[in-house]
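Question: Send over one sample?
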Amino acid sequence: MQKRTVAAIAACGAIAAVTTALSATAQSAPGVGADCPIITSISSNAVSTLAPMQSLPAAKAQQARDAYVAQVQSKASGLTTAQGRADVQAYANAVRSANSMADSQSLLQALTKLQTDCS
């Protein structure tokens, strides 16, 4: 199961490349502009933070995910918009529960939302 989650995390890299390409013509989502520095710092480091967890045993991977979620939530404390807080919380919840391929789909969706919020 962990390898499937890793495949989904790798797909996040592809999503990041696509959203970066689209960012040249896109604008930030309405209402989250003030939160973009925080949201971008979370989304831009997501794949590089989550990918190394693939090689960890399941229990250690869960501990690492929990620590990462705490870090994300700490950054989220500086968000000023309801939409920004909701999107980051959805991402944190998806990371926390990403233990199967079905869970990884929600992780991909949450990360994509973060990446497009401020692209």
Observations:
- Helices lie at 2-22, 36-44, 46-50, 58-76, 82-97, 101-117.
- Residues 2-117 form one domain.
